[in-house]
Amino acid sequence: MLKNILLIGLIPATLAVVGCTTTPTVKQQENLNLLQNKTWVLTHIGSTEYPSQTNSPMIQFSSDLRVSGSDGCNRIMGNYAVKDHHLNLGSLASTKMYCQDMTLVEKYTTALHKVTGYQSYDRTLKLVDQYGNVVLQYKTTP
Fold first, then answer.
1. Yes or no: is domain 24-139 CATH 2.40.128.270?
2. Rounded to an integer, what distance in angstroms lies between the CA atom of residue 56 and that of residue 41?
3. Where does the DUF306 domain start and stop, copy by copy (predicted)?
4. Of 59, 125, 126, 141, which alpha carbon lies 20 to 30 A from 46's?
């Protein structure tokens, strides 16, 4: 008897949870397509331009919600979540190699921690803070 009562309560609860998951709208999917599966190479931290170099910081957002890249010296990796134009970078892990000049690495890492959203169009990606200020800007090749 108790088993039947549990089943009767469990089935509607399961259906309610499954029914609450949402699939991205067409517009959201288009935005994700602009963000994901590309190699984004850093061009700016804030308003300061960083010309492309051999070891320029870069970032990639995969369709399985994993983020990876480089801070110009170390590899970075982790998870991310997207809702509309809000971007939540989870805890990012990185290698800890010694580099001659850690200035760019420190600026880049600090900026990544401020990211709460993104704007993507054509071949440009802007990662923005909670106020909409651009903290990081990237370019990708076609």
1. yes
2. 7
3. 35-139
4. 141
